C-alpha cells in the first residue's frame, strides 16, 4: 500500500534508528519542519545522488527543534524510522513549497546472520586497532547491526546507498564483509609504512644477522 510523504532530499544516507542533527535554512524545508513539529507528522529523506533523486530513502521522525535563529533558520534533531521506495516524486507538494512523493514502505528482515556478524566483528576489531580507534568498537558494543556500522567503515555514498536497498541483514553484512576484506590489508600496510617513515632518521636498535 502506498502513501504520500513530505520529502527532504539530501546528499546523505540515513539508516533506520540513526539519529541525525540538521541545520535547516531553506524556506521550503523550514515550512516542512514547522508543519512536522506542529502536526506531529513524519517526512522522508531520499538520497540525492549523482545529481538526481534516488528511489530509496528513510522516513524521519522529528525529535525536536533545538534552536531557532532570528532569520528563521533552525537546528533540529531527528531519527530514522523505516525505509521506503518512491513511486512518484513531486518537486512541489500541492499548496506547499517543499517536495513530496507517493512512497511504498519496505520492511528490512533481521534474518539469521550470526556467523557473518562474528566475522565482521573480528575484522572491525582489526581495522579499528590498525587505525588506533578501538574506542569506537567499545562504543558500538557486541550487538551492533549493519546499520550501526555502515557510516564507520569507509563506505562511499554510493556504497551506503546500495546497503540501504538491501532488506536482509545477512545481505547487508555480506556487503560489509566484502568491503572490509578489501580495505583491511591496505589500511594495515599503510599503517606499517607510516611507522617506517617515523623511524627514518632515528637511532635504531638493530640486531646483526648471525653468520
UniProtKB/TrEMBL annotation:
Task: Tell me the Pfam families matching this sequence.
Answer: LON_substr_bdg (PF02190)
Lon N-terminal domain residues are 4-182
Q: Which domain of life is it from?
A: Bacteria
What is the official name of this protein in its record?
Answer: LON peptidase substrate-binding domain-containing protein
The organism is: Rufibacter roseus
Amino acid at each position: 500500500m502506498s502513501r504520500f510523504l513530505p520529502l527532504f532530499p539530501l546528499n546523505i544516507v540515513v539508516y533506520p534508528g540513526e539519529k541525525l542533527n540538521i541545520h535547516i535554512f531553506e524556506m521550503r524545508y523550514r515550512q516542512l519542519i514547522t508543519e512536522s513539529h506542529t502536526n506531529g507528522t513524519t517526512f522522508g529523506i531520499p538520497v540525492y545522488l549523482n545529481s538526481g533523486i534516488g528511489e530509496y530513502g528513510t522516513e524521519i521522525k522529528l525529535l525536536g527543534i533545538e534552536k531557532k535563529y532570528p532569520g528563521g533558520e533552525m537546528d533540529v534533531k531527528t531519527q530514522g524510522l523505516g525505509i521506503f521506495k518512491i513511486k512518484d516524486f513531486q518537486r512541489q507538494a500541492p499548496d506547499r513549497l517543499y517536495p513530496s512523493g507517493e512512497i511504498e514502505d519496505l520492511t528490512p528482515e533481521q534474518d539469521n546472520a550470526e556467523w557473518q556478524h562474528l566475522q565482521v566483528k573480528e575484522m572491525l576489531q582489526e581495522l579499528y586497532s590498525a587505525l588506533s580507534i578501538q574506542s569506537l568498537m567499545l562504543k558500538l558494543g557486541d550487538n551492533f547491526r549493519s546499520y550501526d556500522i555502515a557510516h564507520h567503515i569507509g563506505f562511499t555514498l554510493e556504497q551506503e546507498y546500495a546497503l540501504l536497498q538491501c532488506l536482509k541483514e545477512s545481505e547487508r553484512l555480506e556487503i560489509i564483509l566484502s568491503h572490509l576484506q578489501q580495505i583491511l590489508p591496505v589500511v594495515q600496510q599503510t599503517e606499517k609504512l607510516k611507522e617506517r617513515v617515523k623511524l627514518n632518521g632515528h637511532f635504531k636498535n638493530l640486531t646483526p644477522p648471525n653468520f
